[in-house]
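Researcher: Let's run the pair from yesterday's discussion. Sequence first, then tokens, for each.
Model: Starting with the first of the pair.
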Amino acid sequence: MCVVVPSFNNNANFRIEYNLNSIFTQNYSNFKVVVVNDASNDKSEYVYHRYFDFYAIDPEHYVYIENIFKKNSL
């Protein structure tokens, strides 16, 4: 199994759809995407959820995690 973790903070304007298309249009089907919203205050969350709904992405293939407070990077 392949796990992809695209974390983000305020990237609604950075072509989220291209990022997700590169994952969800693969022929390989044994994967899980773990999307981590690190307390964005733009519309990133909306863009991600709109993508999942529009393309009817199977919830078995992704997990959406939302941090309420921004985590410090190591």
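Model: Moving on to the second of the pair.
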Amino acid sequence: MVAQQVQEQLSREMFDHKNQENFKYVAAEGLTEEVINQISDYKKEPDWMRQFRLNALKMFKSMPNPEWGPDLSPLIKEFNNIKFFAIPNAKENATKWEDLPEDIRKTFERLGIPEAERKVLGGVGLQYESQAVYHNLKKDLEEKGVIFTDCDIAIQKYPELFKQHFMTRCVPVALHKYSALHAAVWSGGTFIYIPKNVKVEVPLQAYFRMNAEKMGQFEHTLIIVDEGAEMQYIEGCSAPQYIASSIHAGCVEIHVKKKAKASYISVENWSKNTFNLNTKRAVVDEEGTINWINGNNGSRVTMLYPCSVLVGRKARSDFLGIAFAGKGQNQDTGTKIYHLAPETTSVTRSKSIAKDGGITSYRGLLKVAKGATNTKAAVQCDALLIDEQSKSNTFPYMEIKENDAEIAHEATVGKISDEQIFYLRSRGLSEEQAMKMIVAGFIEPIVKALPLEYAVELNRLIEMEMDKSLG
């Protein structure tokens, strides 16, 4: 009975369940000007956004694929078969759960979203394929002037605020090939504005779900935390397992104004046919703080390097990340920190686990500009290898142009030793239990920093990987 309960607890069904495809609208497969116009027509966008998309498409086609990281050739071969825009047969931005189609509602119920909304969240947004299907914000936050909706609504309802912050100061379109792709085909996502001096003490959450085969999801998250304001935002992501490649190339832009504080928490659990090519950046003004907490698991390839641009005096960045790679997976993750003003501080802690021949890499950039005096930066990256077949890489790059700076970097790679296993087995544990305990201790700093429901999910995901229950 106990064994059966454990197996049920570790079941992948909550993530791998697939609904039958049921679209209200689907653009042609592949990426052409015709598809861009179909997206813009369907959304009834202003002319400037249509031209923005078309220009981004030209940039994407002219830019080379990165050759310094994981192999993207399997994705490139299937690119013309991907659905870049698909609208589910569901009401847009419903505010009641009963207004969602039964299959979509049950998908999010399996993931525990309605229960979390009732117990701990100030607002919830849900995206299914290319469209937001549910959004709800607590009345007291709405009365304080908090805006929490999706970007498709924001461009219509808050046009000046949206246009001022959308892929301008934070994430330039031409940052890299896949930021340009995102700019061309983005859809849905999250738009948050926290007014001056408003402190949102309960988290806001969004969950992004890909269901269809050969799908692309390109949600845009745009967060503006005004002067003296505070907020915490949580994102979850998942997709069922298919054979053909899918792509996720979302974008997160966070504007942290003077003396503001933003916490961004993400647990990404894409399936093993997904190429996760996400872009995340924050621009932090004077005495502002950005906290990043990232968990990456499941995808075939991940290339993700959350970036903090510290432009104001005494701005701060804290980053805490974990990546897990199993058989056939390449998790290439890290962070980028730009210290562009005096008295700025950054702390980066990155952990990775690899098993069954998986590859994890920490790829980090730390730049201290001339004039950024009294800068303090610390980078610590730790890797745990479960077996001899797995691989861990560290690619740190530091560009320090100011002498008045304190910089520290530490990297370690460890293996689970026979001595550790023997010691724990001598205390009555099985070999499997011993390995799980060592891994649990390794990831404890990440788990402790996560909200409870996401800490449970991350622990469960890694347990499933350790149990080889993902197949």
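Researcher: Give me one sentence on the second I can quote.
Model: Confidence is low (pLDDT under 50) at residues 1-12.
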